[in-house]
Specification:
Helices cover about 30% and strands about 15% of the residues. The chain is built from nine helices and ten strands. The chain is globular. It starts with 8 loop residues before the first strand and ends in a 6-residue tail after the last strand. The mean pLDDT is about 90.
Length: about 250
Amino acid sequence: MFDSTPVLSLFVPNPQGTRWAIGDIHGCYRSLVALVEDQIRPQQGDQLFFLGDYIDRGPDSGAVIDYILELKQAGLEIYTLRGNHEQMLLDLLADGDEMSLRFQRHLQYYNCVGMCDEEGYLQDRYVRFMDNLLHYVELDDYFLVHGAFDFNSATPFATPKAMLWSKTHRHNPQMMGHKRLVHGHSTRTLEAILAAIAARAMVIPVDGGCAYTDTKRGLPNGSLGYLCAFNLDTWELRSQKNTESSI
């Protein structure tokens, strides 16, 4: 499946405004709205980069995608990357599995039933959204990706599997030059994310495990359950504690 998948990428020049990289949302619609409207408060000219995994786990995957589409329709400069969870759903569709029991169980297990119409079919706008997601974005000073790049490959920027699934997050100066790597996919505690930012590390994680409770990971109270936005210009982190009614 991955070998024949074309890599969708984009070079995005610096804007007049501010740039934000937002980590894995996983169906946490209320948390996303709170982060964007109460903390980021984007203005025209700002750029918002979403690093994938919009669906699954949280209570309202469809509302997350709808909200991102609304931000775009409002004239904001929105860039959406592909996560492994979107790819899994696309793979099921590519297998002709949309109405199979396996597909329905996937939708139910990952709280994606709200993305379907009354007959149980995945609505077209969600399929189009996922089909057009980028595998990575290159900026003047960063590479943004959901997973990682496989620098053991002869073609690291043409290997989609690593970009979606890899948790081996490395900076390669020969391939990346001075540009840092910002990624999602691998859940990190808020403390670890802040430490990487404080150290001005070449690799910055932004997945604060918004859809996870601490008890699921056996971590100290307050370690996970954050939706994070990293300011690519000022190096400020905005974090929104999960505000969903249920997980």
